[in-house]
């Protein structure tokens, strides 16, 4: 069993991902294409909505 290393993402990258979603790209496509976890993606969208 291999241990996964935790990836870190820049604020700019997170904003680009959120912008794709807000532009209409399906959530599941973004998650698959960028190999993200659903929980991380959802957190970024939520943070974007609360921070403006």
Automatic annotation (TrEMBL):
SUPFAM superfamilies, per this entry?
Answer: Homeodomain-like
Q: Known InterPro entries for this protein?
A: Homeodomain-like_sf, Transposase_8, WH-like_DNA-bd_sf
One molecular function GO term is: transposase activity
Tell me the domain of life. Answer: Bacteria
Q: Residue span of the signal peptide, if any?
A: none
Gene Ontology BP terms: DNA transposition
Q: What is this protein called?
A: Transposase
Specify the species.
Answer: Enterococcus faecium 10/96A
Cite the source lineage: Bacteria, Bacillati, Bacillota, Bacilli, Lactobacillales
């Amino acid at each position: 069993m291999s241990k996964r290393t935790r990836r870190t993402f820049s604020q700019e990258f997170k904003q680009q991902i959120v912008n794709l979603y807000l532009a209409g790209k399906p959530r599941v496509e973004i998650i698959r294409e960028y190999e993200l976890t659903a929980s991380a993606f959802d957190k970024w969208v939520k943070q974007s909505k609360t921070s403006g």
